[in-house]
Amino acid sequence: MFVVIRFRVGESEQAGFGERLQTAVDVLARQKGFVAARTGRNVDDPELLALTLEFENIGSYRRALSPYEVKLTAVPLLSQAIDEPTAYEDLPGRHGFDSGARDR
Predict the structure, then answer these.
(1) Nearest to 91 by CA among 79, 77, 102, 83
(2) Binning pLDDT at 50, 70 and 90, where does residue 96 land?
(3) pLDDT band, very low/low/confident/very high, at 99 (cuts 50, 70, 90)
(4) How many CB atoms lie within 10 A of CB 27?
(5) In a 10 Å sphere around its CB, with 0-12 CB exposed, 13-18 middle and 19+ buried, how is residue 53 labelled?
(6) CA distances from 66 to 55, 74, 78 (A)
(7) Shortest CA distance to 80 belongs to which of 22, 4, 6?
(8) Contact yes or no for 53/3 (Cβ under 8 A)
(9) CA 85 to chain centre
(10) Distances in Å between the alpha carbon of 20 and those of 17, 74, 78?
C-alpha cells in the first residue's frame, strides 16, 4: 500500500520544512513494514509538496504511526498536511487497474 500526503508550504519556508520532513521520513523508515519514501514539488504550483510512503500493508502503516519517536517527530509534521484521504491500496492488473472494472 502507499500513502500520498500533500502539503502547502510557502517557498521561503521550504528549507526548514524540508529538514523536518527528512527527520520524519528517517523515523518512519525505521518502522517495521516500511518499503520506500519519496518527496516532490508540484511543477505547476511550487508551494505544493508531496510525500509518498510505501508500506508492506495497511497494518504496517498504521502501526508505524504508533511509536513514541514517530509521535514526537513525524506526527506533528503530518498534522500540517492538506486534509484529504491519504492511504491507497495497489490495484491488480497489468496497468494498475482490473481490466474487468470498465465493464461494471
Answers:
(1) 102
(2) low
(3) low
(4) 20
(5) buried
(6) 14, 10, 13
(7) 6
(8) yes
(9) 11
(10) 5, 8, 10
Q: How far is CA 29 from CA 10, 70, 96, in A?
A: 26, 10, 25
Total residues belonging to the chain: 104
Render 57-82 in DSSP notation, one character per residue: SHHHHHHHT-SHHHHHHHHHHHTTS-
pLDDT at 8: 98
What is the CB-side half-sphere exposure of residue 10 using CA atoms within 13 A? 2
